[in-house]
Amino acid sequence: xxxxxxxxxxxxxxxxxxxxDFNADIHIIQECENPAETKHKEYNEWAExxxxxxxxxxxxxxxxxxxxxxxxxLNWSDNYKDHKVKHFLPCSVNGDFDLLAVWNxxxxxxxxxxxxxxxxxxxxxxxxxxxxxxxxxxxxxxIWDKWDRWWNHSDVVTELNEIGIESLYHKYWKEEQxxxxxxxxxxxxxxxxxxxxxxxxxxxxxxxxxxxxxxxKISDWLKVSDHLPIICEFETEKK
Length: 239
What we know:
It is a single chain. By secondary structure, this protein is of the alpha+beta class. The protein has a single domain (2-234), classed as Endonuclease/exonuclease/phosphatase (Deoxyribonuclease I, Chain A, 4-Layer Sandwich), CATH 3.60.10. The protein is 18% helix and 31% strand. The protein has six helices and 16 strands. A six-stranded mixed β-sheet has the order 3-4-2-1-16-15.
């Protein structure tokens, strides 16, 4: 199974064809428009099997799968102490594993923006995370940890590790958090401003099954977005 995560930087209807050569089974796309509210025929056809959430019809997060894959949205809570966090889209894939699509948002929070949103989400939903993938744009990196916070990037990584969920990038490339040599994002699409803020976390099943991880070529993808796609290929069980 091949899975891609990509922040398309808006207007996916004009960009989805850039993904077709990968022939992925599942795409997790941040900042994409709602297929149900666009009149773009080709985008609608490409997005025939999907789940989507967002604040506006023009910008949300979507999970797009091949038509033979069953996506079932899961009713996990996005409320933490009466505060709604965003954006998190959990689903079951073929009834076999759970996938949590992530686009961490500032959510107008003065203290719990971005990685703080995921920290809050985990406090409510960690019991749900068993055979799971957590994938998307975290808008976060260890380099921005603040010493007096307990919801830092490093704290979230630690909490996930405690339940057996680890970053596939750091396992595959044998690098430490905060020292990544392969960026996923270029601020204002400038080569001199690279950051690693997109991630794929998985339980042991996915760590063991990961065959290959690659990134879209900078020269190709900065023409269409400020993020690079991450492509993961997993061994599937033979039946």
